[in-house]
Design a protein that fits this description.
single chain, 177 residues, mainly alpha, Arc Repressor Mutant, subunit A, three-stranded mixed beta sheet, elongated
């Protein structure tokens, strides 16, 4: 089992142990729409508490976190973070709301520093010829794309079959011509 799957399952167990009655869960990238979060935010009612294992499970930035806390507060809903730097926070308490804001800002700052170091490392590796990035998915499938098109398969069908975008199919076909 991958560490991401194990971590996801662990979060579900923690939420169940905390007595959560309804769990909204999804595994999406940091840039994808978060349909389950949006559903949870629509679902909660006055007097409810939205529970998350960590702040980054709810929000992608400090601003996002504070916006969600404000949105919940307007509905009379609290936010409870089960693990916030070794402590539990509940936005129905003033001190917890302050700590959430401060710790969220620190987490966002640390993430920005980490991404900056990562970009610097990639740049240095590229300059040394050690980093070339990943090969584009469609380019790796170029021969198959050309073969399928030669067999009369439509670009839309090729895209579906190979799980790539239609634009990528056209781009490969144009460069192969």
């Amino acid at each position: 089992m991958g560490t991401q799957v194990a971590g996801f399952e662990s979060q579900l167990e923690i939420l169940e142990a905390a007595g959560c009655e309804r769990i909204f869960s999804e595994q999406v990238s940091s840039v994808s729409r978060r349909d389950k979060l949006e559903e949870a935010l629509r679902f909660v009612r006055d007097g409810d508490t939205l529970v998350a294992t960590k702040p980054d499970r709810v929000a992608r930035s400090t601003r996002d976190l504070l916006d969600i806390v404000d949105q919940l507060a307007r509905k009379g809903v609290g936010l409870r973070i089960l693990s916030m730097g070794g402590m539990e926070l509940d936005t129905k308490q003033a001190t917890s709301k302050l700590m959430l804001t401060v710790l969220g800002a620190i987490a966002e700052f640390e993430r920005a520093l980490m991404l900056e170091r990562q970009r610097e490392g990639i740049k240095k590796a590229a300059e040394e010829g050690k980093y070339k990035g990943r090969a584009p998915t469609a380019r790796r499938k170029e021969a198959l794309i050309v073969k399928l098109r030669g067999q009369g398969v439509k670009p839309t069908d090729i895209a579906k079959q190979l799980d790539i975008s239609r634009a990528s199919v056209y781009r490969v076909l144009a460069s192969a011509a």
